[in-house]
């Protein structure tokens, strides 16, 4: 039998075809990642995804070096926010997720491995805390690419885990307190009565501590089991949200609120209204269509009492401010629980349950 005929009649051609298929599939995957990396050059931060193998990493880095002002970080810790599972549940559709596969997670602590073009503030080996762009995702992966301008450095006096709690929750609390309500954190400024709902949660527990750095009287709501904790964070009055007064948001001492940082969800305007001072403002960090309507109505009728929806746009310098407060011992992260990345689903479930006390941390 001539060799060619022998070869063609054997199982080899089929085997070769399968090997060819396998190889092309693996090459087809490579450009996907590479394209993602290059997206960054167009000004978008993005994730490298979970790059488990060295050659993925090498490949990723090669593209990365051509990028704009981004840092390529190896993660040490991350934290979860309700935002993460709201994307999964489709609550932010059609805005997010933009494409699949989508790696969730925005809050990270890690070490800079490489820096892209134009990065001035960071170098390989620096410890950093950052916010991953949710449009590209990638906080729950071993490596992530983040923009320089939403990265802050982490001093050695602070831990990766406590700082991983800060980004979204801490920045939201900071934004509400300093920018929306106008409280000065050096304690100057006139005294304000404020209410913080869900003060035991991620945003709420930072909000209580930050508000108390300013000249404020803080009333807080939380579940009975967390009353002592919230008091220890500095709240002057704490109410159990399951009692009638708690449900009505009434201050035990009868104080009217100059501002409410509303970290719980729900509550119609009619619940806030009787508790507000003349120029009282409700900052709603989970704006619903009902609250957007109230916002518009209050604006259109020139009402003195206002409802303000808050959408966070994170900035590196604000994150640095929070990290410095942690370093000075003026702000702390209450850790609800810590999970290794291999148990991320359990952490995810814990966040969906909605009963975290402080932050849920994931460690790498
Ligand atoms: N606008 C933005 O950019 C932005 C940024 C960050 C967060 N958010 C939103 O803000 C909300 C809070 O976020 P988070 O991270 O703080 O959530 P979280 O940590 O999951 O909040 C859980 C805590 O809320 C408490 N809680 C629930 N319902 C309550 C109520 N009616 N009264 C008082 N306490 C209550 C729970 O206490 P129990 O366990 O005792 O029930 C638990 O301790 C979420 O909807 C999130 O999506 C928005
Ligand atoms: C960070 O830089 C990008 C462009 O590279 C810009 O679009 C974005 O608004 C900046 N963010 C902040 C917080 O300055």
TrEMBL record:
The keyword Signal applies. Residues 49-362 form the Enoyl reductase (ER) domain. It holds the Pfam family ADH_zinc_N_2. It comes from the Eukaryota. One of its GO terms (molecular function) is oxidoreductase activity. Residues 1-28 form the signal peptide. Keywords: Signal. This is Enoyl reductase (ER) domain-containing protein.
């Amino acid at each position: 039998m001539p060799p060619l005929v022998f070869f063609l009649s054997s199982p080899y051609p089929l085997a070769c075809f399968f090997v060819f298929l396998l190889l092309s599939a693996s090459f087809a995957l490579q450009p996907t990642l590479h394209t993602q990396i290059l997206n960054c050059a167009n000004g978008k931060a993005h994730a490298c995804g979970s790059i488990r193998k060295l050659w993925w990493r090498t490949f990723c880095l090669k593209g990365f070096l051509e990028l704009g002002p981004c840092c390529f970080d190896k993660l040490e810790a991350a934290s979860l926010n309700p935002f993460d599972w709201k994307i999964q549940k489709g609550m932010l559709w059609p805005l997010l997720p933009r494409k699949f596969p989508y790696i969730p997670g925005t809050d990270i602590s890690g070490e800079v491995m490489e820096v892209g073009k134009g990065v001035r503030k960071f170098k390989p080996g620096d410890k950093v805390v950052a916010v991953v762009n949710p449009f590209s995702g990638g906080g729950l992966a071993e490596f992530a690419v983040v923009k320089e301008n939403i990265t802050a450095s982490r001093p050695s006096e602070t831990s990766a885990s406590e700082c991983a709690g800060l980004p979204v929750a801490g920045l939201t609390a900071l934004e509400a307190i300093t920018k929306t309500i106008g409280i000065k954190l050096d304690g100057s400024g006139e005294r304000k009565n404020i209410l913080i709902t869900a003060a035991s949660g991620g945003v709420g527990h930072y909000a209580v501590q930050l508000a108390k750095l300013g000249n404020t009287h803080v009333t807080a709501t939380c579940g009975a089991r967390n009353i002592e904790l919230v008091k220890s964070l500095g709240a002057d009055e704490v109410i159990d949200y399951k009692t009638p007064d708690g449900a009505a948001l009434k201050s035990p001492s009868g104080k009217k609120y100059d501002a409410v940082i509303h970290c719980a969800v729900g509550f119609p305007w009619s619940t806030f209204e009787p508790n507000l001072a003349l120029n009282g403002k409700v900052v709603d960090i989970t704006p619903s269509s009902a609250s957007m309507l109230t916002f518009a109505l209050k604006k259109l009728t020139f009402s003195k009492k206002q409802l303000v929806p808050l959408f966070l746009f994170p900035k590196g310098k604000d994150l640095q401010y929070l990290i410095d407060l942690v370093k000075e011992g003026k702000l702390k992260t209450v850790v609800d629980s810590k999970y290794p990345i291999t148990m991320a689903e359990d952490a995810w479930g814990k966040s969906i349950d909605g009963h975290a006390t402080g932050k849920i941390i994931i460690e790498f």
